[in-house]
Design a protein that fits this description.
Number of strands: 13
Helix content: 55-70%
Shape: elongated
Distance between the termini: 103 Å
Number of helices: 30
């Protein structure tokens, strides 16, 4: 060692020197925002941005580590880097997966096990974000949130940890050690990711939200900060303090003022990212009057220290007890579960995180670390697969069959889940109209109805058009029976989450105004005008709410009237009222109450918005249409039963099974007879 070379610091001294209490405090803010947001604290509607703050912190710390190693050794030990990530992240992550599986088996109805198994497998393999990006755009996906929903951010970070060291090393070698060139590459990738995020958020929000290419810029901002730490250390005390205070203020503003309606991530994600970056940048200097009393006190340091485990624990503890329930947590119950999550996090940090992170028997060689990681993941995946095993989901009772032409009110309602249930509870989610499989039901991106979607008596000169969203599509089986037996062509024009009513709606799946729906509706009306059908059957989901209006029910009903006024004068327009909306999907509920179907009955008063139906009825009549309410068919005596005879009525919370729709053809036919169905004449 030369006389000018500084002696190497012992590991513990180096760790203490590098430790930043202000960043630990920022971790506490981030995890606190996420946890309290999920607990339902009303004034933290943007608490979800805590994840974005975590991304910046991770990018800064990992970037600093890798760039520092590059400066010292002119290389990066990628395999050792991966090994450290395995020891740091995997034990607690997999441990919580295993315990969550156990909680799910205790609290969740059996039919929910399959989703838990698939989501848990994705979480164990660190691909939750990719899995949710796919299922998030699937209209038929289960509406209940996943017990592993929060693992998406862990999957994204771990994918970043896998790609980033390889990118740095490859760029550094290609540029022959040019540090400035390397930073140019990192800046370019960060900027490209941000642009992609902004653009894709307007096209496919779930993909923009969940995937690395559109989120890498948030970690990239942290990496860029780490690259200029030397310069930031020269900040004046006043400038450094101002940066920290301003950064903290910007971050808290996003936490308080963002909400579900904020288009996110997109450009708005820059707000918490910039806020976190400014705070971290200010802390690189020696800020005078920095917010140490707020961010570096014992309480904040404690929360920051357990933040990883707390993030892992809070969501399953909050969601599992009420996941498939018609009740919500009270604020006192939510507070109790948050405190339980804190206790679980303390124990996990002490007895899982630290021991495995520092264990010499694991870290003694790369082979042991990778072997440990592979074995841990294998155990978790096997446990997830085993958790999907279902018990028998019926009793031995044989129910009276529901025969075509028989009114639901005239069929016996079984008190138990019968052995001859059709479809079975297990296959209920697959009981969807054929127009989903053949592409005739438009997806979110569709803007033009397909002209070849013709069913029934295809050679007939008489025609019926089915128009609306999935609540129109659910009537396809019944209407196909009617069209086939009465000599009509049936033309389908249905699209996911797109009401036929002339209204502007917000798409939760796309997290923006549903412009594709507006274009699709215009094109559908043009096609209907050219067809001049005998009947136009319209149906809409009552949960669709117009945006930018004070009275959503009135606006929607007025939109139905506006639609009917644009239909051909020679067409009979029929608006079907909506089907019941259950708090818990009947198949899920029944799987937990095999011997008491009464537990899954919903009152008609609760299941359908009466004012919505009344308004739609009024505007339909004003516009010369006919309103047909299916509620008496589905809720005899005011009770919406999940099973009629041997037939399961609903496939999820608010869609009919194809079997039930088929058997309701008689009721639909009887409703259309008085207005000319029999001979294709208008009376």
């Amino acid at each position: 060692m030369s006389v000018t070379e500084a002696p190497a610091l012992p590991a513990k001294v180096q760790s203490r020197r590098d430790f930043r209490a202000d960043i630990q405090g920022l971790r506490a803010v981030a995890v606190g925002a996420v946890v309290l947001y999920h607990a339902g604290v009303p004034w933290l509607t943007g608490g979800y941005v805590g994840v974005d703050v975590f991304f910046v912190i991770s990018g800064f710390l990992i970037g600093g580590h890798l760039l520092g190693e590059l400066d010292r050794t002119n290389s990066v030990s990628v395999m050792r880097f991966y090994a450290r990530r395995i020891r740091r992240l995997m034990p607690a992550s997999i441990f919580v997966v295993l315990v969550t599986l156990l909680l799910a088996r205790i609290f969740i109805p059996p039919l929910g096990f399959g989703d838990v198994s698939k989501d848990g497998t994705a979480a164990s393999l660190a691909v939750s974000n990719l899995w949710f990006a796919v299922t998030g755009t699937d209209y038929l996906a289960n509406e209940a949130p996943s017990v592993f929903q929060h693992y998406w951010s862990l999957g994204l970070e771990e994918q970043f940890y896998f790609v980033f060291p390889l990118l740095v090393l490859a760029a550094y070698r290609i540029l022959r050690g040019n540090r400035r060139g390397l930073m140019g590459v990192i800046l370019s990738v960060t900027a490209a990711s941000f642009v992609l995020c902004v653009v894709l958020t307007t096209v496919n929000q779930p993909v923009a939200f969940f995937t690395l290419p559109t989120r890498a810029w948030e970690l990239g901002v942290g990496v860029c900060l780490a690259a200029v730490v030397g310069r930031l250390r020269g900040l004046g005390q006043t400038s450094a303090a101002a940066l920290q205070w301003l950064g903290l203020g910007i971050t808290l503003t996003a936490i308080v003022f963002f909400d579900h309606g904020t288009t996110f991530p997109g450009a708005m994600a820059a707000v918490p990212v910039v806020g976190a970056a400014m705070y971290i940048a200010g802390g690189c200097g020696r800020p005078a009057g920095r917010p140490s009393l707020i961010m570096e006190n014992v309480a904040m340091q404690f929360v920051g220290r357990i933040s990883y485990s707390l993030y892992l624990w809070h969501w399953p503890l909050l969601i599992v007890p009420v996941m498939y329930s018609d009740r919500q947590l009270t604020w006192l119950q939510a507070l109790g579960l948050v405190l339980l999550a804190v206790v679980a996090a303390v124990l996990t940090e002490r007895f899982v995180e630290r021991p495995f992170r520092d264990a010499r028997w694991i870290g003694a060689s790369l082979g042991r670390t990778y072997g440990f990681g592979a074995a841990t993941v294998l155990v978790a995946v096997v446990a997830c697969v085993a958790a999907s095993t279902l018990p028998k989901l019926s009793t031995d009772t044989i129910a009276t069959e529901w025969i075509a032409g028989t009114l639901p009110a005239d069929v016996a309602i079984p008190a138990v889940v019968p052995a001859n249930l059709s479809p079975s509870l297990v296959s209920s989610s697959s009981s969807v109209p054929v127009i989903y499989a053949n592409g005739c039901h438009g997806d979110f991106s569709a803007t033009v109805p397909r002209s070849d979607c013709v069913f029934g008596d295809r050679g007939s000169e008489r025609s019926i058009v089915l128009l609306g969203d999935s609540h129109a599509a659910q009537w396809f089986p019944a209407l196909e029976v009617v069209a086939s037996t009465h000599g009509y062509r049936l033309v389908t024009m249905t699209k996911s989450s797109c009401p036929a009513a002339e209204v502007t709606v917000w798409s939760d799946s796309l997290n923006r105004r549903y412009t594709e729906c507006e274009t699709w509706r215009e094109n559908a009306l043009t096609m209907i005008g050219e067809l001049a059908p005998d009947f136009v059957i319209v149906s809409n989901f009552q949960g669709q709410k117009p945006v930018g209006v004070a009275d959503a029910d009135e606006a929607f009903a007025r939109g139905v009237g506006a639609l009917l006024n644009q239909l051909p004068a020679e067409s009979v327009s029929v608006v079907l009222g909506d089907t019941p909306m259950h708090d818990v999907a009947p198949p899920i509920c029944l799987s937990g109450h095999l011997s008491s179907t009464a537990e899954c009955v919903t009152s008609a008063e609760h299941a359908v918005a009466a004012r919505w139906s009344q308004k739609v009825d009024e505007w339909t009549t004003k516009s010369g249409g006919r309103f047909v309410d299916p509620l008496p068919w589905l809720c005899p005596g005011g009770l919406c039963v999940p099973i009629v005879g041997n037939v399961l009525v609903y496939r999820d919370r608010h869609h009919l099974t194809t079997e039930a729709s088929n058997l309701l053809a008689e009721q639909l036919k009887n409703a259309l007879y008085p207005i000319g169905l029999a001979h294709g004449q208008i009376h």
